[in-house]
Amino acid sequence: MRLDTIANYLTKLEDPVRQQAMVDSYSLVLRPILIPACAYYLFVTWEHWQTQTGILLIMFSFISMTTALSFYMFHKHLTSNRTMSLARLEVHSLAMHLFMYLNLLSYLLVYDVQTRYIYFVLLAFIFAITGATARTVMISVPLSLATLYWFSTSLPSDLYAEYLSIIVATAFASISMTGLLRHAIIRQIDARLLADEMTAKAQSLADSDTLTGIPNRRAIFEKIDALIERGKPFWLGIFDLDGFKAINDVYGHSMGDRLLCAAVDRVMEQVSEGVMIGRIGGDEFAAILPGNLTEQQVKKLVSNGIESITSPYVIDNQELTVGASAGLSHFPDMGTHSTQLYEQADFALYKAKTHFRGQCILFEAADSEEMKNAIAIERELREGNLEEELFLVFQPQYSPSQKRVLSFEALARWENPKLGLVRPDQFIRVAERSGFIQKITGILFRKGLAELKRWPDDIGLSFNLSARDISDQTFVLSLLGEIMKAELSPARLEFEITETAVMSDLATSSAVLSRLRSSGCKIALDDFGSGYSSFEYLDQLPLDKVKIDRSFIRKVPHSITSREIVAAINGLCSKLNLRCVLEGVETDHEMAVLEELQPDLIQGYLFGRPMSGEDARQLIADQQQQNADHAVRYIQSA
């Protein structure tokens, strides 16, 4: 046998898992023997009471009764103790052998009965079978056979030779029996350990994310359920990467995968003991923080993680940057089961991404009713007949200089049999969070095109796109396909986007919008002035129109500052060759003030509330009739 083979064998023997497996296997061998052996020595004790008296009775009865009780206690110990060490099992089995040996030896020392010499052979076989280790066998079997040899030396030469042959045969038989038994047990142990190892690997693969190696969604929820079952308090955090999709689109999925792994490595470097980080899917992750952490402590921990994620990454000489936002819920204060806790943390994450991007937001009690409504809305979005339930209304955009409506903005509406008429801001927000927004956009866009076909060629349609819409180039191309299928001029279509829709990934948004504009469609920036950096978008986005936020328009009659801001933006748009829409004009007083600014386009209740397609067609028809009458009067006067 080579030295490395011997070393490997010795290493296996010292392996704690293998030693415990040896204990389990030999316990199965010993337990069935101990009770019959206990009964046998109780019988021997009874026999002593029938045949012995005096000091011999006491001595023999003590030895046999002690043996019987020891066997019983050993059996009880093996049955109840599942974590006995191999060394301890070795001591127990050696003691068992010694008691059996002393019973026979004491009897033969007092009564030299030649016919009972053969019992040492029987003991040798029993010792060979029940020896927990090779060392136990090497002590017990030679002791039994040596004692047999010592007794046989006093016999006549012919009997001595006969016993000597028996001793040699027993030695070989015992060694063979021990070897066969241990070989069978070791093979069974190897097979079981291999099966356990393969099961553990399969379990590890089933519970691990194949890309990052951290726990996956299944493992995360198993951990949550386990903590809930034990009543252990913990925080559940859901976080995802801001701007990751753009990196995937621009640099490819391989670069995106490497970025994900790099972000995970950074987070794992800061994870304290007991904290579990897992990947739920895509660029969404979960963190389980057990213990009685305060809100301040957990916010600090998560904020540190977010800060580490947002530092630049250098991959293949490319410097990449992503952000991160997080939402948190707490067990047991906020929820009592895993689904509820996840929904709360996910809802808090959506709030963070919508209003507090790059921050960590905790779910609050005040959010419960809003989340309940959101869940009801999402359920109906999944189960409802959206093709029938969704519809559009149209609000005119009026040109004061031409005294006519030039276009309409399409506004989404949803009337559900169970929920009734749902506010657009509510169901659009839920649709964006749950991933239904593109389905809704597609349905409404087709309905908008169908209505536009019924209007004169000089009337346009303005249609709103969400952040998810403009972040998906494939989806935007499908909208262009719908325009071609409807055989409409792209110049009649205008796509409205908001600052919040482009701020998460300006580069991708600009590329997608440029694709739309190059196809002939127009691009409008809605709610201009409501954000913090809107003027930057005038330079970086391919715009045709700017819509000034209604918050300024409402202050115009009472605020010189608002009036000057509106005048400045209106003048800037004129110089940049951009059309400008003043939104939210509702009163004649507002219009009287705004007329001094020579506005390009007006949109508001003063010139038309959102209306059905039929009413929009009637408005267009009335406008055409008025223009015709005006032309007739002009000709007649001429």
TrEMBL record:
Keyword ATP-binding: no
GGDEF domain span: 232-365
Pfam families noted in UniProt: EAL, GGDEF
Annotated ranges, domain EAL: 374-624
Ranges that cross the membrane: 25-43, 55-74, 94-111, 118-151, 163-181
SUPFAM superfamilies, per database record: EAL domain-like, Nucleotide cyclase
Keyword Membrane applies: yes
Protein name: EAL domain-containing protein
